[in-house]
Predict the 3D structure of the following.
Amino acid sequence: QVQLVESGGGLVQPGGSLRLSCAASGFTFSSSAMSWVRQAPGKGFEWVSTIERVGSITSYANSVKGRFTISRDNAKNTLYLQMKNLRPDDTAVYYCGSGTLVRGRRYGDWGQGTQVTVSS
């Protein structure tokens, strides 16, 4: 079955960096567009970034553009999210998945999430 396991979250000070990883199995990772979404405390899901099957095609939410970088290693079936210049409003649970986010609702396959807390 599909498994998506996020890691790399934690507590970081404002301006700091983190790299999230997502280990994928149970499906053809290299054939799937992959995304990161996040959910801040008390809020709905927010799309963060997507990378197409061909890793050179990426897209970002305006709130993270220029600070976050999505990438993938198809040989390792792993998705990444490099986050720099983190801000307190980046605090959220971050989820990776091959599914979609429509009107705040997730469809398809998503992981269990990893907590990112940005605080001094």
The chain has no helices and twelve strands. Residues 55 and 72 are 7 Å apart (CA to CA). The mean pLDDT is 96. The radius of gyration is 13 Å.
